[in-house]
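Practice record 12: protein with magnesium ion.
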Amino acid sequence: MKLNDKWLKDPDTVLVMQALQKKGNKALFVGGCVRNSLLKMPVTDIDIATDAKPHEIVSLAIDSGLKSIPTGIEHGTITIVSNNKTYEVTCFRKDIKTDGRHAVIEYSDDIEDDAKRRDFTMNAIYSTSSGIIVDPLEGLKDLKIRHVRFIKDPNKRIVEDYLRILRFFRFTSEYGDPNLGIDADGLAACAANIDGIKLLAKERIGAELKKILKTKNPSIVLAAMDRAGILSNILPGSSSKYVPILIHQENQNTINWITRLVVLGGAEPTKSLRLSNKESREYKYTLKAINLGKKPSVVAFEFGKDIALSYSLSLAALTETFLPDNLYEQIILGTSVKFPIEAKDLKNLQGKKLGDALRELKDLWIKSEFTLSKKDLLKNR
Ligand code: ATP
Ligand code: MG
């Protein structure tokens, strides 16, 4: 089996691979780039595994005029920059001691050691720089049937690093065959190790849940996480119940992970998942719109198109109703209208009185669904 994708021949990538192999070391592509190429899915980042040690990686990079950044040097990872593109280069390694998140590592010359410390069989498929597949743990077999499966004993692998619980659901949602269902041993091991989730930083949990919510259809996986008690562990009070209803009403242009998060519900996800300011704002405005229960056109006027969409979709899901037929017309209306009154139209007022009057007129105008004209509004003043 041979890969023939464009990224393999990208001159910047070739430069990195040649640099690493210049003194006879091995360097192989691994992880997402190989997995996604085999699945004919887009490749976003390139991970490389090598038997060169960190200091050798740095000097091999320098010898070829490439910049290196010691991103995770304590676990053997160096980022090499080639013409502004970044490559995560990690030494072949074994995890000697683990505490549920971090590992004490030992370098290895053996690719099989390196494969065994990875999480899922489909993530431990390698490719040489010319595209020849190296598959020490028979990951290809699982990849072909889209079976997301832990390498060896799921329970042991999770106890080494509890982040793997969330990665298991993410990869299952993204790459698993929905007809095959979720790997039963993996699921049982995740459920049995819920307590370990508390060892993870909230940012990491948030980042993984975000990735899960960004997959095309996370319904099955979220329902499984819910049943196993994992969802309420990471997001107390949440429920997967309304997610399938939301997904049924989404289309390519309206998929938004924040909307999905709103539909999951739960207490303060902005804090428990450490959302960014921008994400928190989007979440809070959508929730505020739900609580105010205004028309989508009004929400669009007050908060913009994206919040209006997120609001309409989440409200329809949570109330198990359909989206309004004229939703898009309403949103276009709300984002295109302009309040017809300016301060200069209320010449006799100043200061606070002017502010109050403008607000009052604006409320009236919004209530009329933007139909009252300037003349109508000023009539009784
Ligand atoms: P993507 O980049 O598309 O999210 P990926 O598989 O490349 O997918 P990364 O997080 O970039 O995922 O990790 C690269 C590889 O490193 C994985 O494919 C896997 O082999 C290994 N890996 C990453 N995180 C872990 C982990 N927590 N436990 C074990 N192996 C891991
Ligand atoms: Mg990757």
